[in-house]
Amino acid sequence: MMHCTMDDVLALAAGEASAWARQHVAGCAACRAELEALYQRVAQLKALPARRPARDRWPAVRDAALVERRRRRERWGVSGLAAAAALAGLLVFRPFWTKSVDAAELARVKEESATLEQQLGRYDSDGRVTSGRSAALAAALEDRIAVIDGELAQVGPSEAQARSADLVNLWQQRVDLMEQLVSVRVTRAAYVGL
Amino acid sequence: MTISLAVPDILVARAKSGDLEALEALYRAFETPVYNLALRVLRRPEDAEDVLQETFLEVVRSIKQYRGEGHLWGWIRQIATSKALMRIRHDRVRETEEFHEESAAGAGAGEAAGVGVRAGSGGMSPGAVPAQIDLERAFEQLSETSRAVVWLHDVEGYTHEEIAERMGKTVSFSKSQLARAHVRLRRMLDEGVAR
Q1: Which end of chain B offers a freer environment for a tag, N or C, measured as fewer CB atoms within 10 Å?
Q2: Within this chain, do residues B84 and B163 fall inside the same structural domain, yes or no?
């Protein structure tokens, strides 16, 4: 007598069996037993006891995440230099513009930004995190600043005239974000007693 | 293995903003299921721990890309499965292991169509449920590929199409691996190999 193969039994369990297999299993105790045994094996596999890792791997994950964030900040620092260079270029080439950029306003926000950079340097993160929320907030602020720096870096002298108002606006946004970032850092420093 | 995998939306939102405390909470919530998936497939605890670490590094990097479509566990499980399968592909020991298993199993592939030969013999009766520990040990004796297919299909609920896609194989490969694995499991349990 021909019986179901394991392929047939698996297909029966999945509801995808051939007409022959469905008909056969209805009248064959051995194949019904095989199908039942399959159900039980699967149920027992699902019921296997949960194991727990011997070592806690979260510290390694967290440390790697912090290293990546630090590298991102370093990249952001490079972007900041590029932005500063771009601004310097804009100021240098200002005499060639037909309409003057509001140099005083630009100089003001630039000076403000530089001051904030100095403040930030005093509270620079050393990788220690006392609050996940503050770390996340700082990371979000840094991301937004990096975006602005990227935009500033892309503005060359040829575009500066048309985008003079944009430049002032971007630098002002940068200053606002820097102020928030310094605030986060100051709070953190006060918390850890730096 | 019954573990609650529900996490509050606010926790996910905090994790997406980069909150390390929230990310750690997600790690604690999914540490056991990720580790168990990897352990069942790879068998070696140290490999499973490595997959656990790699999975959550990816979660930390990519959580912003999780759009909340479907359960978070489904998203994390995809990452864990991918990491575990990648480790199988890169594991040079695997070939040796499979060679030994093939040798031990004899005509294992041909036996996939061999349920019928047990009729009238001393096959397992419906009431002879093997002890759980025996099944666990028998399962561990399967090859990594077979364990992966059985675990992903029978326990995690992946379809053959999904398994084939993740393993870079065909659907028929997944189906035949599953059938062969169940033939071997049944035989080991019948013969008391795992006892």
Answers
A1: C
A2: no
